[in-house]
Structure formats: structure tokens, C-alpha cells
Amino acid sequence: MEFSYQAIGVIRSPYRQKFATPRQPNLVSEAEAEILFEDGFDHRDCMRGLEQFSHLWLLWHFHRTSELGWSPLVQPPRLGGKQKLGVFASRSPFRPNPIGLSVVRNLGSQTINSQITLKVGGIDLVDETPILDIKPYLAYADAVAQARSGFATEKPGACWDVNFTDSALDALSRYQSTYPNLRAFIVSVLQQDPRPAWRARDDDNKQYGMTLYDLNIKWLVTDGRIEVREIRPSERND
User: Fold this and answer.
1) Exposure of 65 by Cβ count < 10 A (0-12 exposed, 13-18 middle, 19+ buried)?
2) Which architecture, in CATH terms, is 161-233?
3) What's the predicted TM-score (pTM) here?
4) Across 70-98, average pLDDT
5) How far separated are the first and last CA of the chain, in Å rounded?
6) Domain 9-142 classification at class level
7) Where are the beta strands (DSSP E) in 81-140?
8) Is the pLDDT reported for residue 19 higher than 90?
9) Coil/strand/helix, residue 64
10) What whole-number distance in Å separates Cα of residue 118 and Cα of residue 114?
11) Is the separation of the CB atoms in 23 and 102 below 8 Å?
């Protein structure tokens, strides 16, 4: 059987690339985004009653990986990227049907220039991810107190202290008015250690770059901490 679905909208996310995007929702509370609705789904009636719910389910399409296919076995990052499990025992983006599912905070809808947007928080979606559906999170049905979570029983903790060089602090002050929570956002992202799983908890003294909003952030892991060295406007090839 085959089915086709139409995206109801796209998300405008501060995560502009897969690298540094959290592997699960609500690991970075500062991550906020807006959903822009396609014609036919941008009707105010579609939002009626949504304000009653603090959290929402987003169903979405893995548009960055869908053309890469899938494999029956995957290597979950939580297991160091070395141990293999079945794809249905993981949340790998490389799936038979590349559909993602995230629970996010409902920060409310608004209308600007006749365009309805829905603001959400705690996201784990890359910019321009197609949204397939939105459903309310129901605590009595969706939170299972007796659930077992296999190899992922606990929320990942903060792996590193994060420091900023003087030049990075100067850049933060310049962007403060545009991105008021930028420093906290950067810290929360880096504390999750976005490097490949096999690098986790290692000092590799290699400089990395990540793009948040329209900024490129350069950082490295050295002497048991992460040091943010540079924050500048991103370029197309960053």
C-alpha cells in the first residue's frame, strides 16, 4: 500500500543544519521556532481551541535524509554510535517512511499581515522542515508512568562547561538586541555535545562550526571544557 500526504506548513527554525540540532525534543528549552502554514491550512478556525493545550505533537518529514534510504540496522548515538539495533528500536532519521514525531511547547499563534503562524518551543527540527500534522498532547493518554525506555532511560545530562573568549563575548553583546537568549541558547546546544557519538567526552582540540539563526559559531573542546571562539554572520558555505 502507498499513500501520499500534503505538508500543512514548514517550520522556521534557528537550526540551519543537521549538525548541532538536538537528537530529541526539549533538550534545548531555548530553541523556539514558528510554523508557517500553506494555503488551505492557514485558516484561523484550524487553531480554534489550541490555546487550551500547553504541549503539541508535531508530525514531520525528514527532508534532509529522505533520499538517502534506510537500513534495517542503525547505530544509535546514545550507544556511542558503535552498537547496532533494529531501526524500529531507534529514532533514527533513516527510516522506511521518513516521518518524525516531536512533542513541543505551545507558545501560541498569531496573525501578521494575514499570515497565521504558530510558535513552538523545545524543538529538534531543522529549518524548513515540512510539517505534516499537529495534534494536542494529552497527558493522561500520552504520558505512561510505567513505560520502559530501553537504552535511553534518562535524559542526557550536560556534558561540558562552556566558556567564551573575549572576542566571542564582544560578538554576543552586538547580537543581544536581535537574539536576546543567544548566549543561553549556545550553551544549551553545546552542553549536549553535538559532535559525532564516538567523539563524546573526548578532548579532540579540533575546531567545529555550527549555524544558529544566521550566525556561525566556532568552538572546540579542550582542557575538559568547550570554548566558544568566534561568532559571526554565516556565509552560504559555512
Assistant:
1) middle
2) 2-Layer Sandwich (3.30)
3) 0.91
4) 90
5) 41
6) mainly beta
7) 85-86, 99-112, 115-121, 130-136
8) yes
9) coil
10) 13
11) no
